[in-house]
Amino acid sequence: MRKLTSFAAGLLFGLGLLLSGMANPAKVIGFLDLAGAWDPSLALVMAGAIATAVLPFTWAKRRSRSLLGAPMQLPNKRELDGRLIGGSLVFGVGWGLAGICPGPALAVLLTGHWQILLFVLAMLAGMLLFSALERRRTC
Which residues cross the membrane (predicted)? Predict the structure, then answer.
């Protein structure tokens, strides 16, 4: 049942990304181009996503287990540190340069665009590098 609900949630997320335009690099770059022809439509998408998530997250914070019995795994760290800020900067720069972030990249991976494949390969390389650096850091 967990795999089925995970698949359904991923499918819903992917469809939402496609329908909202978040998987279109030109639309994302238009949103990020504050000094040029700014397209504010993705701000409405983000505001809608935040508004939609408020109730489920409020509910989840009060529970120790999900509806399917899995333990709740919400982040509990609240302070900002250099790692969080640095990671956010790297993510933001990559999003701005490529016009796409990991979720939409995976949603459109099979469209055959070599740029998306290159982005996903670079993303996976970054994840492997992070894992290697984390292992070195904790040893």
Answer: 41-59, 80-100, 112-133
Question: Domain range holding 47?
Answer: 1-138
Helix (H) or strand (E) holding 10: helix 2-20
How many distinct structural domains can be found in the chain?
1
Nearest in space to 107 (alpha carbons), one of 2, 22, 8 = 22
Query: What's the whole-model pTM score?
Result: 0.67
Q: Tokens in use for 43?
A: 């701000």
Q: Helices (H), strands (E): how many in the chain? A: 6, 0
Give residues with Cβ within 8 angstroms of 13, minimum separation 6.
103, 107
- Specify the pLDDT at position 85: 93
